[in-house]
Amino acid sequence: MDAENTENTENTGNAPYVRYEVGEGAATLTLDSPHNRNAISSKLLRELHEGLRSAAADKDVRVVVLTHTGNTFCAGADLSEASSSDDDPPELARQRTHQMTEMLRAVVELPKPVIACLNGHVRAGGMGLVGACDVAVAGADSTFALTEVRLGLAASIISLTVLPRLDARAASRYFLTGEKFGYRIAEDIGLVTVGSEDPAETVDELVDQFMQASPQGLAESKALTTRAVLEGFERYAADLEAQSAQLFGSDEAREGMMAFLQKRRPSWAP
User: Fold this and answer.
1) Helix (H, G, I), strand (E, B), or coil: what is residue 143?
2) Which residues contact 123 (CB under 8 A, 6 or more apart)?
3) Are 106 and 162 spatial neighbours (Cβ–Cβ below 8 Å)?
4) Rounded distance, CA 185 to CA 196, Å?
5) What does the alpha-carbon distance between residue 265 and residue 94 come to, in Å, rounded to a whole number?
6) Cβ distance 63 to 113 under 8 Å?
7) 239-268 residue pLDDT tens
8) What is the pTM for the complete model shown?
9) Where are the alpha helices (DSSP H) in the chain?
10) Are 100 and 240 in contact, with CB atoms under 8 Å apart?
């Protein structure tokens, strides 16, 4: 699973990591795991997938909004979860990667539009979530980075949803440097649909537009726009899952993850 760099800081018990609410034709899925900056844990993926299934089955839901609490939309994979188990690391990585693949595919395949409403930091696997959404609105506090390369990893699975959004030159730069960029650049290179000073208001306006469309019209029109992305899943997902699992189990990636968790530079950094 594609990762950035995040760690658990407290025990949250049985509190949900994803909140699901429905109102006026829109289902809102809110990433609400502030203790680890909404990291992509097994629990968050499971609850997000459940929310998508609920939205798909609800005839009163016309559009889905994916948003977050706190100043981080999603910090990437939960590295403390990825590195803390005594079980076989490559097998665990394979399982988590497949879970991430299926969740991204569920966003793309959902026969209803999905809007990302962002006003915080987006890293690594979180970029895959943004890319999977049909429309992305980002506020001025949003920042973005594909940080896998700095951990001895690659943006394997999330490339399926991120690469189709980006200008090719921008993809080369940000996939290879891992550097941070802001919401205006994200809009310029295609990752974000709209950069907005008031993302919530912009999302409300978009929801109003979608509510004027028929459910059948939305489903069939979305299928046209996502066909090529789903073809990419069919052709490349298995190989990318294998690559991701292999990288997570590598010595270099273990060094990168441990360096982060220990708050030190990895061995390759100057």
Assistant:
1) strand
2) 4, 5, 6, 72, 74, 75, 76, 144, 145, 146, 147
3) no
4) 12
5) 27
6) yes
7) 999 999 899 889 999 999 899 889 999 999
8) 0.92
9) 42-57, 79-84, 89-109, 125-132, 159-162, 168-177, 183-189, 199-211, 215-248, 251-261
10) no
Cβ atoms within 10 A of the Cβ of 101, count? Answer: 22
At residue 3, the pLDDT reads 56
Amino acid in position 265 = R
Return the SS3 of 35: helix
Rounded Cα–Cα distance for residues 252 and 151 (Å): 8
Cβ neighbourhood burial of 14 (10 Å; 0-12, 13-18, 19+) = exposed
| Contact between residue 207 and residue 115 where contact means Cβ atoms under 8 Å apart | yes
Joined together, the tokens standing for residue 120 give 């915080």
With left for phi above 0 and alpha for psi between -120 and 50, is residue 13 left, alpha or beta? left
Closest CA to 92 of 251, 252, 258, 241: 241
CB 94 within 8 A of CB 84: no
The verdict on domain 18-199+214-261 having CATH code 3.30.565.10 is no
- The DSSP annotation for 175-208 comes to HHH---EEHHHHHHHTS-SEE-SSHHHHHHHHHH
